[in-house]
Amino acid sequence: MMKKTAGIHHITAIVGHPQENIDFYAGVLGLRMVKKTVNFDDPGTYHLYFGDEGGRPGTIITFFPWANAYPGRIGDGQVGVTSYVVPTGALSFWENRLEKFQVNYEKLERFGETYVVFSDPHGLSLELVERESGEQNNWTFDGITTDVAIKGFAGATLFSSEPMKTADLLENMGLQKVGEENDLIRYQSDGEIGNVIDIKRSHTGRGHMGVGTVHHIAWRAEDDDDQLDWQDYVDSLGFGVTAVRDRNYFNAIYFREHGEILFEIATDPPGFAVDESFETMGQELKLPPQYEQYREQLNRTLIPVEVRKLMK
């Protein structure tokens, strides 16, 4: 029996200096930093999470910031573009805000929608699009009000080394083909946000992991039982899938699809208030139990960072 995901749970990327990362995603884009922790597989590096006021699935972008690391190359085998959704009528606000922060952008039309396209300071490709769908984001910060705040992901554009095989997999994950335009095939899930996936049919050359590239895209599972069903299902499709890994704020399984993009399936619960209150999320360094004994050392070695207002 075919399974269906509601859409994107989170997207994880590699970036440069952590303060530059925070300044852009919190300071410019107005997302809430909902968690400051470490890479569970490399605890000498931060793992930073940004999303809406509650850090709900479908709103979360996460980062491994490596200061002075080598730049990557966006290409086949990666998420090429990460798309955010803003309320209807909000694009002009965002154009003005990007101009104030001297962020170059361009506008393009795709599938009847207008996109504002730009890059973050480390080269990650981003875009904004207006849609009615998705809950209002009640997080306000430094001139960004709820009527214009980013609601979460609109979706993503996948750069696959085997586009039609990736398309087949999306259909096997419950997404429906809803259109074709120029070089893109569009798929949509049943979720309210993070639900529109474009696959680029032409090749861009092999991507290389590094600063300014997406590490993986995660899809939503309802809970632990649903995730175990997904694990069996992915295995039945012929993909090598990992054991369940505890990421504190969700459980995760991983596999690499035929187009070489690393996919994760992550549980919606427990969420980011599991180890601190909703009101204080993101303010303190949170560590998993296995690294708590190294807190003092990590506080000395990790680069000091803060969320700060940038508007003058």
From TrEMBL:
Pfam families: Glyoxalase
An MF annotation (GO) of this entry: dioxygenase activity
InterPro entries xrefs: Extradiol_RC_dioxygenase (IPR052537), Glyas_Bleomycin-R_OHBP_Dase (IPR029068), Glyas_Fos-R_dOase_dom (IPR004360), VOC_core (IPR037523)
Occurrences of domain VOC (ranges): 7-131, 152-268
Recorded superkingdom: Bacteria
Keywords assigned: Dioxygenase, Oxidoreductase
UniProt-recorded name of the protein: Ring-cleaving dioxygenase
Organism: Ornithinibacillus caprae
